[in-house]
């Protein structure tokens, strides 16, 4: 896996902290910093997600992928799956994640709650590289809603 991240701004512009990531699979992801009124050259324009937001989003994608795949392999009729992540970060640099809560919403026909609970646990204990890595600094908790369709 590879990714190239390139700075898109220059010190003389308001977009001093914009970046574009080009992934090995050929996709592009924009990132930008928060505006800094005191030092505009140090801030972004709020045109894209912050880099740490993309870490959180990637973790959500990684675990949701696992949950859907595990449920489908169990022959469950999954129709929708989403995960809302909320987090807290350290006050001082490095401002690592210290707490992450993942709330899953899974919808489908006849899916047992135990199957959803098991899929989430398997993701966090075995398969989701991102959440397992972040668990080195963050307390990760989970919950879920199951919707019968």
UniProtKB/TrEMBL annotation:
Pfam families found in the cross-reference section: OsmC
Q: Which residues form the signal peptide?
A: none
Q: Which InterPro entries match?
A: KH_dom-like_a/b, OsmC/Ohr_fam, OsmC/Ohrsf
What is the official name of this protein in its record? Osmotically inducible protein C
Q: Which organism is it from?
A: Variovorax paradoxus
């Amino acid at each position: 896996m590879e990714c190239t991240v390139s700075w898109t701004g220059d010190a003389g512009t308001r977009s001093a902290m914009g970046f574009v990531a080009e992934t090995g699979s050929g996709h592009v992801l924009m990132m930008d910093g928060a505006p800094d009124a005191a030092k505009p050259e140090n801030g972004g324009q709020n045109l894209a997600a912050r880099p740490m937001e993309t870490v959180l989003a990637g973790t959500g994608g990684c675990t949701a992928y696992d949950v859907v795949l595990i449920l489908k392999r169990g022959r469950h009729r999954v129709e929708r799956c989403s995960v809302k992540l909320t987090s807290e970060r350290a006050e001082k640099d490095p401002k690592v994640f210290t707490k992450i809560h993942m709330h899953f919403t899974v919808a489908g026909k006849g899916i047992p709650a135990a199957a959803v609970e098991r899929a989430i646990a398997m993701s966090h204990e075995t398969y989701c590289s991102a959440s397992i890595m972040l668990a080195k600094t963050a307390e990760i908790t989970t919950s879920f809603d199951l919707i019968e369709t």
